[in-house]
Write a structure and sequence with these properties.
The chain is mainly alpha-helical. The chain is built from four helices and two strands.
């Protein structure tokens, strides 16, 4: 088995669940591959911001940008583009779920 595949499988196997603020259980996803860990961190952060906009597909760019600004993330911030791209990916998947699963009563939450 290749070294990269071994590292990926080890990372997936080592997922843990942690308790956040005594209420929610969060996934602590560490792949031990820096690029994937950074991308996953952006996806989780974008999901948190999207949840603040609401939990239905169709969040607009303006709503997301307003939420980022309210959280202190300005357009000059390094994370702005990465978070925006991650949010687009999440929203695309949520819209895809609704478009192709006619029996879907409640969309996947962010």
């Amino acid at each position: 088995m290749s070294s990269l595949l071994t590292r990926l499988l080890n990372g997936i196997i080592n997922m843990t669940y942690t308790e956040s603020e005594g209420k929610k259980k969060m996934i602590n996803l560490k792949m031990n591959i820096p690029e994937l860990d950074r991308e996953n961190a952006m996806l989780f952060k974008a999901a948190t911001l999207l949840e603040k906009c609401g939990n239905t597909p169709g969040t607009t760019a303006n709503q997301f940008y307003a939420t980022m600004l309210a959280e202190g993330i300005s357009m000059d911030d390094e994370e702005f583009l990465r978070l925006s791209t991650a949010a687009v990916a999440i929203e695309t998947m949520m819209t895809f779920d609704q478009a192709f699963d006619s029996e879907l009563n409640k969309p996947t939450i962010h």
